[in-house]
Design brief:
Helix 1 runs parallel beside helix 12 (about 240-260). The longest helix has 30 residues, at about 120-150. This protein has helices spanning about 5-15, 25-35, 45-65, 65-80, 85-110, 110-115, 120-150, 155-160, 170-180, 190-200, 205-225, 240-260, 270-290. The chain has one domain (about 5-290). It is globular. The protein is an all-alpha fold. About 75% of the residues lie in helices and about 0% in strands.
């Protein structure tokens, strides 16, 4: 992999990891579309992608560092006491519950999932399906919003129909974690399917995005512990990969700041249409045009 190729993948990763359009899907589709010659089955390719994800995790830690300090302290207090008493301790429990499914599935299916990193045709199909999921979630949310308006006299009464993150049930947090596990398959967006799970749990868009961004950090750090040691082999361009991770982090930070503002009024629909169009186009290129 050349320096330019690494930087392109880094920039794409930094943007697409938090936008609900699948960073892994783009990492699988872009090299063959651009006729890059490096081998995506190379044992260092997955650790390279994890290193880029680590750049995203660092960006999110910078963005949410105050909140993470509170969460970690709350977790320690609750673990020491043996029970949950505050909303911060409850949020810590929700994050743990939502992280477990992806961690278990990732460990059990790692070898099988890694094979998909060199499979652009299935990835294009999964990207298309990701778009359908985003659009379907917004259709259901609009129906819920219409029901909330019935009998509500003020906007505050309408918004009371939806939950804040701290009001989320632990069972729903685990279900959202199962949604996040779907993103281990290239083509499905981690932030996208996690937000969809949040919307189905009746969270507001801003709260669903916040939970998705908070959830990214522990799962990425866990993957980094497992995969990044494989980069420390002779011939691996660690300098190039490290610069790429920094580029990813900067792009991810800017993306997160934009999305947190966007989801105050925006929806998942534009990203759903994009994923369907990109997935369909990639499928046609790999199966018909070539």
């Amino acid at each position: 992999m050349s320096f330019l190729q690494a930087l392109v993948l880094a920039l794409v990763q930094g943007v697409t990891e938090l936008f609900p359009i699948s960073s892994l899907g783009h990492a699988v589709l872009i090299p063959p579309l651009l006729h890059w010659s490096f081998n995506e089955n190379d044992p260092t390719f997955l650790p390279f992608l994890v290193l880029l994800h680590l750049g995203t995790a660092v960006a999110l830690l910078i963005l949410y560092w105050r909140e993470w300090v509170i969460i970690v302290r709350a977790f320690v207090r609750a673990a020491t006491r043996g029970r949950i008493e505050t909303k911060d301790e409850r949020l810590a429990l929700l994050l743990v519950a939502a992280t477990v499914p992806a961690g278990i599935i990732g460990v059990l299916l790692q070898t099988y999932l890694q094979k998909l990193f060199a499979s652009p045709v299935p990835t294009s199909i999964f990207l298309f399906c990701n778009g359908l999921i985003l659009l379907g979630a917004e259709v259901l949310r609009r129906r819920s919003e219409r029901r909330a308006k019935v009998g509500a006299e003020t906007r505050r009464e309408q918004e009371a129909h939806f939950r804040s993150l701290e009001e989320l049930h632990v069972g729903w947090a685990f279900a959202i974690g199962c949604c996040q596990a779907l993103a281990l398959v290239p083509g499905f967006s981690r932030s996208g399917v996690t937000m969809v799970g949040g919307l189905m749990a009746n969270l507001k868009h801003t709260e669903a995005a916040r939970f998705a961004f908070l959830l990214a950090t522990p799962i990425i750090l866990a993957a980094a512990v497992v995969e990044i040691p494989d980069l420390f082999h002779k011939g691996v361009p660690l300098g190039t990969y490290s610069v790429a991770a920094v580029v990813t982090g900067v792009a991810a930070y800017l993306s997160a700041r934009f999305l947190l503002r966007y989801f105050k009024s925006g929806r998942l629909d534009p990203y759903g249409w994009y994923c369907m169009a990109a997935g369909a186009a990639a499928f046609l290129i790999f199966t018909v045009i070539r």
